[in-house]
Each structure stands twice: as C-alpha cells, then as structure tokens.
Design a protein that fits this description.
By secondary structure, the chain is an alpha+beta fold. The protein has helices at 2-20, 63-79, 105-110, and strands at residues 24-33, 37-45, 90-94, 115-124, 127-138, 141-146, 149-154, 158-163. It folds into 2 domains: 2-94, RimP-like superfamily, N-terminal (GMP Synthetase, Chain A, domain 3); 105-163, Roll (SH3 type barrels), CATH 2.30.30.600. It contains 3 helices and 8 strands; from the N terminus they run H-E-E-H-E-H-E-E-E-E-E. The chain has a 5-stranded antiparallel β-sheet. Strands 1-2-3 form a 3-stranded mixed β-sheet. Helix 1 crosses helix 2. The N and C termini lie far apart (39 Å). 17% of the residues are buried.
Length: 167
C-alpha cells in the first residue's frame, strides 16, 4: 500500500506543473484495469477563491486542454528515470465532468455549499445513501444538510461521493 501511495505522489508531482502551466489542476490520478492497465488523470480549471466562499461554477476543460496535457505528460513520464511504471498502460486525460467525484478531504472543503450525493460503506444513522448540501468539514467528518437536518458522515467510511450538477 505504501508503494502505491508513493507512486501516486510521484505521478502528481509530475502532472501538477504540466497542468498549472495551462491554468489547470489535477483533480485525481488513478490506475484502472479495463482491457489492460489505464492511467486516468482528471484535470480541472484552477480556482482561486477566498477562504469560506463556495464554488458555484467554473469553466470547463476543453478537448485541447486534454490533448496538450496528454502530450506533455506522456513525454514527462517517458523521461522520468525515478518513476518505474510496470508494464504497458494507456494514458487517459479527461475532465471530472459535471458530477465531479470528491476523493480527498480537500475536495469536500473546496466545494462547501454545493449539493452532493454520498454513499458510505457502513450505515450512518441507519442509512448508506445521502443527498444534500455540503455544510462543512470538521476534522474527518463531513456535514451535509438534508431537509433541514445536518448529518455528520465520517470521511474514512465514504465509499463514493459526487457533486450534483446545477443545471
């Protein structure tokens, strides 16, 4: 597990400057196995906001953004001697989409005030599925408001979380 953490940390160190040069940021990096190994990199626009404000809308990532990051990231991965990616893999660079997944605790902080859908591994208050407004994070607890009631969900048991798009 520690080896995987180091691999992802190194991948982020390589991808971040490539994205930052284009006003982009790395939303997530993960390996998936679908007809071979796929390195998926999700990119999004950098957002500068003041503390305590909420994110309501940000411009999307273009196809050109994805193509340019793919080209430069492939080159950087090939040239990096420290990174030893085992076996063959495909690189996919994309936007997280309108229903952006929330992977890190920082994601929940960043999108405070947004509507979210959360699924947990273990029941919280007798349920595993929640939908509501992201109120705040307290330590490792995520507070969401559902129908006027605040539910506190421990971050470590969150199986899946996504933004609900505002259309």
């Amino acid at each position: 597990m520690r080896e995987d953490h180091e691999l992802y940390r190194k991948l982020e160190q390589i991808a971040e400057p490539i994205c930052r040069a284009r006003g982009l940021a790395v939303a997530d990096i993960r390996f998936h196995y679908e007809h071979g190994q796929i390195l998926r990199v999700m990119i999004e626009r950098q957002v500068s906001k003041s503390p305590g404000s909420t994110v309501s809308h940000q411009p999307g990532v273009s196809l050109t953004d994805c193509q340019e990051v793919t080209r430069d990231l492939l080159t950087a991965l090939e040239l990096d001697d420290e990174l030893k990616l085992r076996g063959e893999y495909r690189l996919e660079v994309s936007s997280p989409g309108l229903d952006r997944p929330l992977y890190k605790l920082e994601d929940f902080n960043r999108f405070r005030g947004s509507e979210v859908r959360i699924q947990t591994r273990n029941p919280v208050a007798g349920r595993k599925r929640f939908r509501g407004k992201l109120v705040e994070t307290r330590g490792e607890n995520i507070d969401i408001e559902e129908d006027g009631t605040v539910v506190s969900i421990p971050f470590p048991i969150i199986n899946k979380a996504n933004l609900i798009p505002e259309l």
